[in-house]
Amino acid sequence: SESTSMDRGIEVMTYIVSKTFVKEKIVAGYKPAGSPPDRKSAIDRLVEIGCAPNSGDAQMAFGLAGIFNLLAVSMETLRKEAFIGKEITKEQYDQLQALGKTEEEKDIDAK
Prior knowledge:
Layout: H1 2-16, H2 20-27, H3 42-51, H4 58-72, H5 75-82, H6 90-99, H7 103-110
């Protein structure tokens, strides 16, 4: 059904928007290459779906809330918040992680 297809689409979007490069594209107004000029951007479409009559259904609403939450906050902020109240800071953790990396991994991170 249409609702099931929409739920699945939102579920997929919730996952892929957790990737920084995808989030940045969506926030910047992503449209597929070759789209007609009047085609709505991904963010416009998400807002439209959120305003639709059945968008308050539990699964869809939860998925949309997750998407907008991820779009509204950077991964860096989420990482910093994860260390609040911990015995180690985010910076100290990053330093420990860097110590364990091989030269090849450091080269990849630098790119």
